[in-house]
Amino acid sequence: MKLNFLMLCIVLFTTPALAQYNSEYQNLPESVSINQSIDLLSAYIQRESVSGSEKEAAIFIEDYILTTDLHLKVFSDFSDNYNLAASLYPLSSGKPNIVLQSHIDVVPVEDLDDWEHDPYSGHFDGEYIHGRGALDAKGLGIMQLKALEGFKQDYDTADLPFNVTVLFLSGEETGGKNGARYLMENFEEELNADVVLGEGGAGYQNVLKNKPDKVVFGVSIAEKQSLWLQLKINSNSAGHGAAPSKDYANMQLINSLNKLTNRRVLLLFNRSTRRMFRSLGRAEGGVRGFFIRNINWSILAPFVRKQIERESFLSSLLTNTVTVTNIYNPPGPPNQISNSATAVLDCRLVPGTSSKSFIRYIERKLDNDNVKVSVISESPEAQPSRLNKYYKALEDAIATSYPDAETIPFLFPATSDNSLFRSYDIPSYGLIPAVVTERDINSIHSNNERISLDVLKSGIVIYYNFIKELQLKEPFSLFGNNDEESESK
């Protein structure tokens, strides 16, 4: 019986592969031209916009908005801080605002020779649009913009009780200082955001072992906090490499990093992860579903830990992670021992973890008072978003395109601008509203980034239906109650 129980625990933690899913409902609204959407995204990708150089791409989007019936707002127009929006109504209307946000900036391109197409070509091969930012997150911005533009043409928006705004932000890839943070520090009242939808999860197959063909959409309601730390040590034990001392700077730093990276980590179940596993367990059903729903039971801990330690994705969801991203010394010849050594840590903290207490934990694990720890950057601490009427509208919009799909809330293991909005107590949900392949997800921040035509169409349709769901609901039921849905649902 113990063996069978162990095998069950191992099976339920097997990480799923992602697969392509062809929805039977991918018909765009007649007001939205897919060819124009492809051309718009392709041209947007061609405007190179590595963080700090967003202006050209932002002006391109600005010029396009001016050709539509939407209202343009430019919040800032600097080369490294260019933020703008397209809205149903002017922001000065003061209506509660449903904000759809993406970022203009992209990460730099490396290994140019490994790209099948020029990373800034926006090449369309009939199935995929290729280039840096295709998925992260220029494609998302075009989905949102075309959906709002189509809704504006198709429906009477003369007196809706809410506004809808598509927000294009700078600097997301470098922490959001010149984008989301700048916007909320200077335009929070004018934006008047009631909810924010940005990047996050997506639709996947092969998640449920008992129902491998069933699509599961993961909508992120929380994210791990990013904490970037610098470790620096200075030592007088410098000199010639042929006669090293026992405690020169590099050796002290290496020993301390070994103690840190070999630590035994804790599994941290919080409201977001417990909710995620409960939702997955209900969708799975049967005995296996029962164990998934109750994964945080202490009796399961020995079996859960063993499997989670094998699976990097699950480990990233349930632990505070520490990654050594850089180790360096001042320039010097190969035979000179440096008297200074520096390392950079990328730490990602499960919601509810205090960054101050985690820094003290890092210092204890390093076990060397000579190593000085300082903060390079940290994202704001934010509570998970509650599941309100907007989440339900998003769930209904997904169901229109994917009637048999499951939609579940989950913890996003990375960090995005959604966290900044959550820190202002604005409900924020993260989703690429389409079923994506493993190949395409892995292209983000890597070589040969691309977005399929099916994904682009699906995103436009679901955002369009999301706005339509809001328009169809009674105003008092949508805007009078933001309480969380029942946990037993």
Question: What's the layout of helices and strands?
Answer:
Elements: H1 2-12, H2 34-46, H3 55-65, E1 71-78, E2 81-87, E3 97-103, E4 128-130, H4 138-154, E5 163-169, H5 180-191, E6 193-204, E7 216-223, E8 225-234, E9 239-240, H6 249-261, H7 271-284, H8 286-293, H9 301-308, H10 312-318, E10 321-328, E11 336-337, E12 340-349, H11 355-366, E13 372-378, H12 389-401, E14 406-412, H13 417-423, E15 428-435, H14 438-442, E16 450-452, H15 453-472, H16 475-479
Parallel strand pairs: 3-5, 3-6, 6-15, 7-14
Antiparallel strand pairs: 1-2, 2-5, 4-16, 6-7, 8-12, 8-13, 9-11, 10-12
Core attributes:
489 residues, alpha/beta, eight-stranded mixed sheet, four-stranded antiparallel sheet, 16 helices, disordered N terminus
Q: What does this protein look like?
A:
36% of the residues lie in helices and 22% in strands. By secondary structure, the chain is α/β, with parallel strands linked by helices. The two termini are 33 Å apart.
